[in-house]
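Quick one: structure tokens for this chain, please?
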Amino acid sequence: MATAASPSGRAAPKGGGPRLLTAADDVATLPVANSLLVAVGVMMASLLQVLDTTIANVAIPHMQSSLGATSDEISWVLTSYIVAVAIAMPITGWLADRIGSRRLFMLSVTGFVLSSMLCGLAQNVGQMVLFRALQGATGAFIGPLSQAAMIDTNKPSRQSQMMAVWGMGIMVGPILGPLLGGYLTENWNWRAVFYVNVPLGIISLAILAATLPSRGLIRRKFDGFGFALVAMALTALQLLLDRGNHIDWFQSKEAWLYAFLTISAVWIAVIHFTTAREPLFNRHLFADPNYVFGLVFSLVIGVVMFATMALLPPMLQRLFGYGVIDTGQALMPRGIGTLLAMQFSGYVLRKGFDPRILIAGGFSIAALSLWEMASWSLGTDYYHIATSGFIQGIGMGLVFIPLNASAFATLPPMLRTDGSSLLNLSRSIGSSVGISIVTSQLAHNLQVSHSDLAAHVTSSFTDIIDVSTVDRFQSLGEAGLAYIDAMVNRQAAMIAYIDDFYLMMWLSLLAAPLVIFMSKADLRRRVASDEDSPSADIPH
């Protein structure tokens, strides 16, 4: 069984049962006068950053029309943000050690607010792409720093509750994004999608300025070569994933160039990080099996959760005829399931429940919901859509808290920021990879299914239209064939969505057994004092 270090630096014993801590041991790494107020400021900033990954998507058509951009040009509004986040996030730990976690957090929130305002003021697509890249680069540090701050400013006996709160924002944010973005776009203007960050960001910044503590500075040498390799690999990968459909994937020389740069940079980076004296990421991170498998599971969460969220809104709107608000309401039960499951998982962890069982169970429940979604048809009603979403939310909620708790249980405080940045980066890469795979497969399977279905459209296909009379009644026949083609397209699209749901179901099922490679970290701790009886606690 893995051992965990106490806040005072003493290791927990290897025997059965948790170590009995005194009240003196139950102290936060960075004590604050009001940890709840700190959590409010941290979570407000974190939620804004997570919302921005999806809130702008529904405004893209309005943005394209207003800025006079082509479909290829407007795609860079999303691509520039994702690429900037991927490049900036890996250096979060080094910057936090160099200039201080408090200063970096406040600079990040300030930059995010200002760049959001600039996005709302953009007058052409070039400005929008530039400002979105700036927004991604400044906001990339918020996620890792917020997770580390929630752990550092709370004593061990409260960290599970705080991680559950942080997890709710991370998991529910992408679900609320399309609903909020659609509401703002329909009732005001697409620019309001960005302006909403300004007042909330200023409130968050004021709270952080008054309450957020900072760790001591550590003079770490910057691994410029390692950062360049990581930046090249992530940029090339993101460009390949985001532009793949536009350039017909590997039928284009551009895609082969991106793939070559990605593989070359990753290969050289692995050699560099294993041999360099002071690599960009501390090698002790990768010596912890729980943390390594935490990275793997974060990747899977990114694929399953964000790919599903990318598929459902267009499916509900185009195939089922839902409006933007109706779509948001149909997806809301997913967030409710996530909230309930996170509270439950945090509670049972404090009682000493094996986190590996929760992780495996969560992925299995998510797979069950995807199996249910794979049985949908064009006649599926709101109840079944909401129910499957609620079940999937429960599955993802059961995974998230035990996964983060296990990953951080044996990491010393000095590695938390680096560890958090890599976990967030892994989830971000997973979302990009997942979205790219499911959208590519959707387009391919739609064509295949359309061809298969069209082959069965004969004179005996329907009693409504006799396709053999098209030549004699040209205009009426063409209208009839157009109607049939539209129906075939809808059915083919539904089959393509079902194929994607099956793909993610099998991925979830394959991830569940991997928990056997994790060591059992007893995340329970009891805190005793002269006045109080022992109470349950959790990892740090």
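Residues 1-21, 525-540 have pLDDT under 50 and may be disordered.
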